[in-house]
Amino acid sequence: MWALRRASNPLRNQEISLGSFRAGCARVESASCYLKNDSQSAEHAPVFTDRFVSFKRYHHMQCESFKSYNGRHHFSSHAGMKSSEDEDDLEDGFSELETAASASEIQASKTPCESDNDLISESEISDVDSDDEASGLKNELELSDTVAEGSKKIVEPKRVSVQLLKAILNAPGLSIKSVLDKWVEDGNEVNKSDIMILNSNLRKRKMYGRALQMLEWSADHYECSERDYASRLDLIAKVQGLGKAENFIEKIPKAYRGEVVYRTFLANCVATQNIRKANEVFNKMKSLELPITAFAYNQLLLLYKRIDRKKIADLLIQMEKDDVKPTVFTYNLLIDTKGQSKDITGMNQIVETMKEEGIEPLHETRNIMARHYIAAKFKDKAEAVVKEMEGGDARENRAACRYLLVLYALLGKADEVSRIWEICQSDANIYECLAAIEAWGKLKKIKEAEEVFEKTSSRWKRPSAKVYSTLLKVYADHKMLAEGKDLVKRMAEGGCRIGPQTWDALVRLHVEAGEVEKADTILHKATQQTRMKPMFNSFIAIMEQYSKKGDVHNAEKIFYRMQQAGYGARIRQFQVLVKAYINGKSPAYGMNQRMKADNIFPNHQLVEMLNQVDPFKKTAASDILD
C-alpha cells in the first residue's frame, strides 16, 4: 500500500500536507463570488467523496510549513504565479518536467544517423523536434502494438526505406494515400510495422495531418487493434479538434473501445487544457468500469498543476481510494509543483516519501530538485544533489552529463562545465551538445557556445532545428540581434524546418532588443503561414511588453490570439492582461465575468490587481458624492 495511506505520510498529515492545493486555501473574501453557483464546474468535476479534512486545517498546516523557508512565498494554489523574478523559466507555458521525455535518458548514449544511407531509424534525431505538449507522459501512451512491444524489450530498431519517407514528406499535403498506393503499385511492400515507424517519424516532425492520412490508408488494408484506433484518435484530436475525435470514438467497434482509447482522448483534453471535457472523460471511464491507471491520474494532475492546483489534494485522495499507485512521473509532478511554490520543505518531504516507497529518484527527478534549490538560493543543497547525480565518475555515468552541464552553469561553476564537457565532447550525443550550448550561454561564454554549435553542425549533416534554437536563445539572452538574424538566415539556407521553438527564440530576440512590434509581426506571420502551434511563452513575452506600456488594445489582441491558437485561459494570461489595464489607467469592464466564464478563480495577487481596475470600486470621495 502506498504512502498516502500512512498517517505519517508527508503528502497528507504532516505539515507538508497538500492542503494548500484544496479549495479555499489562501482565498480572500473578495474572491468568494467566484465560488458561488458554479453549477457547471461542479457538474463536470471528477467524482470525489469523503472530503474529510477541513479547509482551515489544511490552510493552517500549509502556512506552518512555510515558516521554515525564509524568503518570498506563495501558496501552491496560486496557479500561474512565479515566486521570484529569477525563477527558471518553468513555463512553455509549463515546467521543463512536462516537456522532458523519460526516454531521453535511455537514448542519451545514442547518436543520430551520421550518414545519408538508404535506411532511417525510428530513433533518428536529425531534423526532428521532439517537444510536444505533455510529452512527459508520451511513453506511457504507447499508441501502437509495435511501439508497445518495443518498449517492453530491447530490440534491433526496425527500419523503413528512406525513399518512402521522402515521398511522403515531399508530397502535397492531401495526397498521402495516393503516394502509398503508388508505392505498392510499383511492387514495394508496406507492412504494418513500417506504418508505425513512419507514423513515429511524422509525429516527431509534427506532421500530424500526413500521419493521419497514412493511418486512414492503413485501416483500409490491415486489421486494426485498439492501439491503432487510439493512435488515429490522437491524430484526429490534434488535426481536427476534440469534437471530431469524440465523434470518431463512437465509430470505433465496441470491442476496441477500451481504456487505451479513452486515456488517449483524455490526454488530448489535457493538452488543450479543456478541464471540463477532461473531467467528463475521466468520469466516463469510471462509469464504463474501465481500469483507471496512474496514467489517467497523472494526466489530471498535470492539468490541475497548470490551471487549478487547489484540486490536486482531492485528486491524490481519490487516487488513494482507487488503490492506484503513484509513478515516478506522479512524484516528479508533485516535487515540481512544490518547488515552483518555493515550498522547499514540502519538496524535500515528498522526495523522502518517494524513497520510502522504494522509488529511487532518477536523474530527471534530481534535476528538478536541483533547479528549484538554485532558484530558491539553497546553493549547498543544489550542489549536494548535483554531486549525488554525478556519482563517483561522470565517465561511468554519462546519462547524467546532459543535466550536469546546465546545473553547473546555473551554479556559476565554469570549471565544472568545462570538465564535464571534456568528458563528452569527443562522442557527445545530441542532448549533451544542446546542454553544452545552453550552459556556456548561461555563463556568458558566447564563443564557447558557438564552438559547440559549429561542432554539432559539422557532425550531423542536417542538425535539428533545436540546435539552432538553442543558440538563438543564447543570442536573445545577450541581446545579440544581428548574430541572431544571421543564424536564422543560415538555418533557412540549410533547409532546416523553422517551427515553434525557432519562433520563440526569434520573438525573445526581438523583445530583448526592444522591437516588440517586430516580434508581434513575426509570430503572427508564422501562425498564418503554418498550422503549427506557437509556444505559450512566445505569446506571453509579447503580451508582457504591451502590458508594461499600458497598451490595452494590443494586450487584448495577443490574449485573443492565444485563444485562437488553442491555449485555454489561465491565471497567468489574466494577470498580464489586467496589468495592461492598470498601467494604461483604464477600467476593466466585465473582467470578473470573463474570468468566471473561463473557470478561472483569482489568487490573492490577482484579486488585488482586479480591485485597482474595478470601474465600480467605491472610494471615500465616491461615497460622499453618492
UniProtKB/TrEMBL annotation:
Record PROSITE patterns: PPR
InterPro entries, alphabetized: PPR_rpt, PROP1-like_PPR_dom, TPR-like_helical_dom_sf
Domain of life: Eukaryota
Chief site of localization: mitochondrion
Keywords: Mitochondrion, Repeat, Transit peptide
Location within or outside the cell: Mitochondrion
Family recorded in the similarity comment: Belongs to the PPR family. P subfamily.
PPR repeat start-end pairs: 327-361, 464-498
GO terms under cellular component: mitochondrion
Protein name: Pentatricopeptide repeat-containing protein, mitochondrial-like
Any Pfam family hit: PPR
